[in-house]
Design brief:
The protein has five helices and no strands. With 139 residues, the chain is mainly alpha-helical.
Length: 139
């Protein structure tokens, strides 16, 4: 996902034909690397999902290693993409990424507000959790 956010914004930049070609080359290299990694055996879900399994610790470590490798590859690709850009494009990219971050924060705030309103409706007007209004206590 690291590269995905970057690419969404890079597409908005006015890239030269040479820059587009360099980007294509970078993605072709990434595709080849991903295909070579696809030949590795997949992680056994029946083992990694069972902490009592004898192979559990090794399966977890393998999953961690693969995740770290994926993040490293994405980081390297992001660095290479960034290296293709001019100084002006890098400044514009920073502005686009900052605006994207603001939009994501606003979206998260809206989602949080929706969750809170949903919770309030579930708990009812008195907050007693029944949704049936105030509770009366005889005593």
């Amino acid at each position: 996902m690291l590269v995905g956010a970057l690419l969404r914004q890079v597409r908005q930049l006015d890239l030269s034909d040479q820059q587009r070609e360099r980007m294509r080359d970078l993605f072709a290299q990434q595709r080849k690397q991903r295909q070579s990694n696809a030949s590795r055996p997949s992680i056994d879900v029946s083992v990694i999902g069972d902490p009592g399994s004898r192979g559990y610790a090794k399966a977890v470590q393998d999953a961690k290693n693969r995740a770290a490798e994926r993040i490293q590859r994405q980081s390297e690709l992001a660095t290479q993409i960034y290296g293709v850009l001019t100084s002006a494009q890098k400044r514009q990219l920073a502005t686009l990424l900052a605006a994207d971050e603001v939009r994501m924060q606003q979206r998260e705030q809206r989602m949080q507000q929706m969750r809170e309103r949903r919770q309030q409706r579930r708990s009812g007007p008195s907050g007693n959790g029944t949704g049936n209004g105030p509770s009366s206590s005889a005593g």
